[in-house]
Amino acid sequence: MYAGYDTTASVASNAVWQLAKHPEVWDKVKEEQAGVVAEYGPVFTEVAVEAMVYTEAVVKEAMRVMPPLAANFKIATKTFGLAGRRIPKGWMVVTATGSTAQYFNDRWPMDADFRPERFLTGKAPDACQDMVFGLGAHTCIGSRLSLVENTVVLATLARGYVFSLVEDGSRVVSDPMPRPENGLPVCVTRRGDPRNQ
User: Fold this and answer.
1) Which three-class secondary structure string do you get for the chain?
2) Mean pLDDT of the 61-89 span
3) What angle do CA 112, 72, 88 make, to 5 degrees?
4) Where are the domains of the chain?
5) What is the CA radius of gyration of the chain?
6) Which residues are annotated as a binding site for heme?
7) Contact 3/18 with Cβ under 8 angstroms?
8) Which residues are annotated as a binding site?
9) Angle 80-85-91 from CA coordinates, rounded to 5°
């Protein structure tokens, strides 16, 4: 079972990678954070985090483009039928949440573009279209914690760090979580560091 630490770290790393590839999005996160600090101060209070609407949308989009787990594995507790096939009790059932739920639906058909704005429409997504955390009784109990943790990580970085893409040709591998094949191709430096000039 993969939970908490690994999946949160995977989402944070992939979000940083996406932000380094999309500096215009990173600028919006930094702008939002400047506004949050101006209104609520530098402490991550509940109301301050709730005001980080765009930053949270970036986290959700990072999970949509590259879900922390490409599939869920369950054991059938009873024999059942699915798409005309008989699935016997005890068989392992794999749901490919990474591709089926994230790309193949009416909300964002085959859309691998990184656009956090898609989560700012005000419309609640159909649960079947957004399965990063599972569904129903088997929904991840840490889903809200994961969103808050990753939002705070990005907010912290936005308040004091600069990203630069080292290379932009890394292939994504999964073992079992998706990651750039040769490590995160991003240089993260503190604002004001002479290397940023």
Assistant:
1) CCCCHHHHHHHHHHHHHHHHHCHHHHHHHHHHHHHHHHHHCCCCCHHHHHCCHHHHHHHHHHHHHCCCCCCEEEECCCCEEECCEEECCCCEEEECHHHHHCCCCCCCCCCCCCCHHHHHCCCCCCHHHCCCCCCHHHCCCCHHHHHHHHHHHHHHHHHHEEEEECCCCCCEEECCCEEECCCCCEEEEECCCHHHC
2) 87
3) 130
4) 5-160
5) 18
6) 140
7) no
8) 140
9) 55
The pLDDT tens digits for 22-39 are 999 999 999 999 999 999
> Measured in whole angstroms, how far is the alpha carbon of residue 63 from the centre of its chain?
2
Token output for 143? 């889903």
Q: What is the largest CA-CA distance in the chain?
A: 64
Quick count: other Cβ atoms within 10 Å of Cβ 55?
A: 24
CATH of domain 5-160: 1.10.630.10
pLDDT top residue among 51 and 123: 51
